Amino acid sequence: MARRRLRSSTVVLGGVGVLAATLTACGSEPDERCVDPVTYEVLPEYECEDSDGDGRYYYGGRHTGGTVSGGSFDKSAVESGGFGSGSGSGGG
Question: How far is residue 29's CA from residue 35's CA, in Å, rounded to a whole number?
Answer without folding.
Answer: 18
